[in-house]
Design goal:
The complex is a heterodimer of chains A (246) and B (498). Chain A has 246 residues and is mainly alpha-helical. Chain A has one domain. Helices cover 71% and strands 2% of the residues of chain A. Chain A contains 7 helices and 2 strands, in the order E-E-H-H-H-H-H-H-H. Chain A is globular. The radius of gyration of chain B is 26 Å and the shape is elongated. In chain B, the strands form 2 sheets. Chain B has a 6-stranded mixed sheet with strand order 6-7-8-3-9-10, sandwiched between helices. Chain B has a 4-stranded antiparallel sheet with strand order 2-1-4-5, covered by helices on one side. In chain B, helix 3 runs antiparallel to helix 10 and helix 15 packs across helix 16. The chains are: A mainly alpha (246), B alpha/beta (498). At the A-B interface, helix 4, helix 5 and helix 7 of A face strand 1, helix 16, helix 17 and helix 18 of B.
Chain lengths: 246, 498
């Protein structure tokens, strides 16, 4: 049962109007979940059985198919978080704040995994777990910004001032995202530049596997976003009900 | 048609799901004193805070002299004087300095004369040059009264205004109230005391559980309520009504609604007769002046920052095996780490004076541009960090045995410091609202300072060991400063808003 706010009374009640599947999830969530699961199965098959083994790097190169989509979600998550923050500041509609919080949590997890996988990949190809390469450094900065955002929101609780501070922090922090993207173009880096779309840079099988993987992880991000959005909403309502009771 | 000084319609306030005010309807006419009576937690203070523009209603509307308290908040602040049961004054400043500061925030002309006049009126003329921290509770409350009257407000909002006052102080308050009302001003007062309510108000409103449960409309104000106590300060120059028609006649335009309450008002006016705020630079400099004076008296920040920077330099000097070939790489890193660590100590205290004694709300009550507050805090931080750097640089040069290249180093240090302070001021304001601000501030600030640190260290390193193919580090620092200063100025208001 979903909780809905009645604008006039300010009371919250169970509406029971959302379309639910027999699995207890809203239909949209179920569709996203099924698509993510099917996509993940196809991605795993393509990554381990369809895509060719790299002649120089060998099997560890397959990390690429996880690392790139996760880094992409890490950046996408922050862009969504910032847009939601700006819309919140303009409209003061707290649903946008729930979107921002949800995106911050999902994005932080994916960026953490991207950094860990990148570090493992780096060890096998560069011989080191970490180097102060511009791409790595700027990605690490974004991870710290994510952590700072989540700490700020956690310390300030579910308040309006917390939502506003989070939005402002995101607006300041998002400046790092284009820098990460352009790092390989602006500086000489160990990290390889973007090769998708560059004619002849990658075999078609690699590009196809990467695109399927990117799509799947984006679907997974959307699925998790919807779940966390509802979780944020419920947490907000629970806190308010507690306040009302106290 | 008479325009009410205060008109409240269906005003509600919820904190989360908890309703504090459940629909308040009130009308206050010029020259009236309304008393809100009720137990603790009934919503009296919340109502006053909303009318003062410190908090926004969840529903409903409130207008002061025809101006909406939310939409026209900045103009409404000119019309309202607020006395809370906490005085919210700067303890390290003198009584006179406090009034001068707030007078500048309200754009009061001839503020020195007005401040002295009010200090004399509240019986503090002999103690005007003493720090507020040395005054008694009752004297501080009198000073809070003087501040509330400083800009000759149309409406006085008084939240248990006589708390901490002795008998003489209460007589003084009655006298001030009487004079204010006789001059056409209005008063909305909260109290727990039935006696105070009956003595002061010609309307007594009982509030219970966020609702009005009883309204006792007494006689129109005729001075009989408290005239007997008008013994203090016959020389007090009270605001005179700008012709009865100014407050009793419906204003035809917003400009007219903004016409000053008093013909003899000291408030700055432009040629059209509307009230002005002080220019942003004047406001910013007034706040900066206050912060510097406060710091010079309290000595809470500079000494700690300086010692911390010195310790970092000593520890780095001790920890690293400095040789000629690595000095250019290590020494600048140590220098900037010292600057940044010391800066964080200072940045954490950006709103210290406001946070510790609570006058941030009082500052936000003034019709001061929020950008001016940010600029003043930023300049204050640059100044405090700069002083520490001036002390630390020669010590750094001596410890690390490096030349200073003062001419070339100056812009790097200046713009690097500006970068640190730009982000630090914004985020310290953000962190100030949290309990674990000391932990949170470095987590928020450090990641975004990385570009400045890299650029500043490399630029400083390049002075010690010049290299031909270095990027324009100083230009990068300046670009960082410009971008983040712009973003901070645009977003600061969202952070300080309740």
């Amino acid at each position: 049962m979903a909780l809905t706010k009645q604008a006039t009374s300010g009371k919250y009640q169970h509406s029971g109007t959302s379309a639910k599947s027999r699995f207890g999830l809203p239909l949209s969530s179920l569709i996203l979940g099924v698509l993510s699961f099917v996509g993940m199965m196809i991605s795993i098959w393509m990554i381990f059985l369809y895509a060719p083994t790299d002649a120089i790097q060998g099997q560890p190169q397959r990390i690429f198919y996880f690392h790139v989509p996760m880094a992409w979600i890490g950046m996408l998550g922050f862009i969504v978080l910032t847009i939601a923050g700006i819309v919140y500041l303009c409209t003061r509609d707290e649903r946008w704040d729930w979107v921002a919080r949800a995106s911050a949590e999902v994005g932080a997890v994916f960026l953490t995994l991207a950094l860990i996988l990148g570090s493992i990949w780096g060890k096998t190809t560069w011989g080191t777990w970490w180097t102060w390469d511009p791409k790595l450094t700027t990605a690490l900065i974004l991870w710290f910004i994510y952590v700072g955002y989540n700490m700020l929101r956690s310390y300030m609780g579910y308040t309006e001032s917390s939502a506003r501070a989070g939005a402002v922090f995101a607006i300041v922090g998002v400046i790092d995202v284009p820098i990460i993207y352009e790092a390989t173009n602006w500086w000489r880096t160990l990290h390889p530049p973007a090769q998708v779309g560059v004619a002849g840079a990658l075999p078609n099988t690699v590009v196809a596997t990467l695109l399927v993987s990117l799509t799947t992880f984006t679907l997974l991000y959307s699925f998790l976003m919807v779940q966390l959005y509802h979780l944020q909403k419920l947490q907000t309502h629970i806190q308010r009900l507690r306040e009302q009771g106290s | 048609m008479t325009v009410p000084v205060l008109q409240i319609t269906g005003l509600k306030k919820n904190y989360g799901l908890k309703p504090v005010l459940r629909g308040i309807d009130l009308v206050l006419q010029p020259g009236e004193c309304m008393v809100l009576l009720g137990a603790n937690g009934t919503g009296k203070t919340t109502l006053l805070r909303m009318l003062a523009g410190l908090s926004k209603p969840s529903a409903g509307r409130a207008c002061i002299n025809g101006l909406d308290v939310v939409r026209d908040a900045q103009q409404v602040r000119h019309l309202v004087g607020f006395v809370a049961h906490q005085p919210y004054l700067y303890e390290e400043l003198t009584a006179l300095e406090n009034l001068l500061f707030f007078g500048r925030m309200y754009g009061v002309e001839h503020v020195q004369e007005r401040a002295c006049e009010l200090l004399q009126r509240v019986g503090l003329e002999r103690r005007m040059r003493e720090r507020v921290a040395t005054l008694s509770r009752g004297q501080v409350q009198r000073l809070a009264w003087a501040r509330a009257l400083l800009h000759r407000p149309l409406l006085l909002l008084l939240d248990e205004p006589d708390s901490g006052l002795d008998q003489e102080g209460q007589v003084l308050i009655d006298s001030l109230l009487s004079e204010h009302i006789e001059q056409g001003g209005s008063v909305l007062l909260t109290t727990h005391q039935h006696e105070r309510a009956l003595r002061s108000g010609n309307q007594v409103v009982m509030i219970e559980n966020g609702r009005i449960v009883q309204v006792d409309k007494g006689e129109p104000w005729n001075g009989h309520h408290i005239s007997a106590q008008r013994s203090v300060g016959a020389q007090f120059i009270v605001p005179s009504v700008a012709g009865t028609d100014t407050v009793n006649r419906a204003p035809t335009s917003k400009k007219e609604r903004m016409r000053p309450f008093s013909l003899r008002s000291n408030r700055r006016k432009d040629q059209r007769g509307t009230m002005n705020c002080a220019p942003i630079d004047v406001e910013a400099l007034a706040i900066l002046w206050k912060d510097v004076r406060y710091e010079l008296r309290s000595k809470q920040t500079w000494i700690g920052m300086g010692m911390f920077a010195l310790l970092v330099l000593v520890i780095f000097n001790f920890a690293f095996d400095l040789r000629v070939d690595n000095k250019a790489a290590v020494a600048p890193g140590a220098l900037w780490v010292a600057f940044i660590f010391a800066s964080l100590l200072g940045l954490g205290r950006t709103l210290a004076a406001e946070r510790e004694q609570g006058p941030l709300d009082r500052l936000l009550l003034c019709p001061v541009d929020r950008k001016a507050i940010y600029l003043a805090k930023l300049l204050g931080n640059v100044l405090f960090i700069g002083v520490v750097e001036i002390v630390a640089l020669p010590i750094f040069a001596a410890l690390f045995d490096v030349p200073l290249f003062v001419g070339a180093l100056l812009p790097i240090v200046l713009f690097g410091t500006l970068g640190i302070a730009t982000i630090g001021t914004l985020f310290s304001t953000m962190a100030a609202a949290t309990r674990a601000r000391e932990l949170l501030l470095p987590v928020l600030v450090f990641p975004l300072l990385v570009p400045v640190v890299i650029a500043a260290v490399r630029a400083t390193s390049n002075l010690l060991a010049p290299s031909v193919n270095e990027p324009p580090w100083l230009g990068l620092i300046i670009a960082f400063d410009v971008i983040f200063l712009s973003v901070s100025l645009l977003t600061f208001e969202y952070i300080v808003e309740e």
